[in-house]
Amino acid sequence: MSPNNKEDNKDNTLVLDKSNTNEQSSEIQPVEKSEYGNSEINSFIKSFEETLGLPIATKQKLNRYAAKRLLARYKPEGCAKLITLASMANTTPYAPRIANMMDLEQKLPNLFVWYRQNANKGQNRAVKATDDEFADCEVVEDF
After folding, report:
1. In this structure, how many other beta carbons lie within 10 angstroms of the beta carbon of residue 116?
2. Are the C-beta atoms of residues 85 and 115 closer than 8 Å to each other?
3. By Cβ atoms counted within 10 A, which residue in 101, 102, 126, 138 is the most buried?
4. φ and ψ at residue 42, rounded to 5 degrees
5. Would you write out the chain's pLDDT as a tens digit for each of its 143 residues?
6. pTM (2 decimals)?
7. Backbone angles phi, psi at 49, to 5 degrees
8. ∠ CA(100), CA(105), CA(108), 5° rounding?
9. C-alpha–C-alpha distance, residues 55 and 33, integer Å
10. CA–CA gap between residue 40 and residue 45 (Å, rounded)
């Protein structure tokens, strides 16, 4: 059909073929979100979000970098303990508040000081009960 030939389409209307639209719409399935990046970082972030109940919705790239650095420094076993410690701190008054991986990395020295103070005073039963659990937390480098 050429643009100069008016005999092919006399009323200049657009004709759509709707014969296959019903078949195609029934075959459409939702696309699953694929994970990207390091699986160790993904599992660390996922366990952080599940334990603290705070989804990491902003600055995801920076949070992934912070998670990578934490995993390199404290190993996966130590990072699991850090998540537990952050969860305890978020439910205790006057403790550092942790909302994402960047907060965990930046406030970690404050979190350790809070933990040691409360463990030594014996005021917080949750901290006292998990004192043995954190005793073997290996730090690769001292801060």
Report:
1. 13
2. yes
3. 101
4. -60, -45
5. 555 555 555 566 666 555 555 555 556 666 555 667 888 999 999 999 999 888 888 888 999 999 999 999 999 999 999 999 999 998 888 899 999 999 999 999 999 999 988 877 765 544 444 445 555 554 443 33
6. 0.60
7. -65, -40
8. 110
9. 16
10. 9
Q: Both tokens of residue 3?
A: 């643009």
Distance of alpha carbon 86 from alpha carbon 84, whole angstroms: 5
Instruction: Name the residue among 67, 73, 143 with its Cα closest to residue 112.
Output: 143
Structure tokens given for 81? 């303990």
Q: What's the length of the chain?
A: 143
CA of residue 17 relative to chain centroid, distance: 45
Pair of tokens at residue 61: 């790239």
Closest listed residue to residue 103, CA positions, set 115, 112, 111: 111
